[in-house]
Amino acid sequence: MTDLTVSRGGVPVLEGVSFDLAPGEALVLRGPNGSGKTTLLRTVAGLQPAQSGRIDGAADRIAYAAHSDGLKAMMTVTENLTFWANVFGRHDIASALRDFDLDRLDDRLAGALSAGQKRRLGLARLMVTGRPVWVLDEPTVSLDAASVALFARAVRGHLAGGGSAIIATHIDLCIPEAALLDVTPFRAAPRAAAHDEAFL
Amino acid sequence: MIALLARDLRLAVRAGGGFGLGLAFFLIVTVMVPFGVGPETALLARIAPGVLWIGALLACLLSLDRIFALDREDGSLDLLATAPLPMEGIVTVKALAHWITTGLPLVIAAPLLGVLLSLPAPGYLWLFASLVAGTPALSVIGTFGAALTVGLKRGGLLMSLLVLPLYVPTLIFGAEAARRGAEGLAVQTPLLMLGGISAGALALLPFASAAVLRINLR
Question: Which range is the signal sequence, renumbered to this chain (chain B) (predicted)?
Answer without folding.
Answer: none
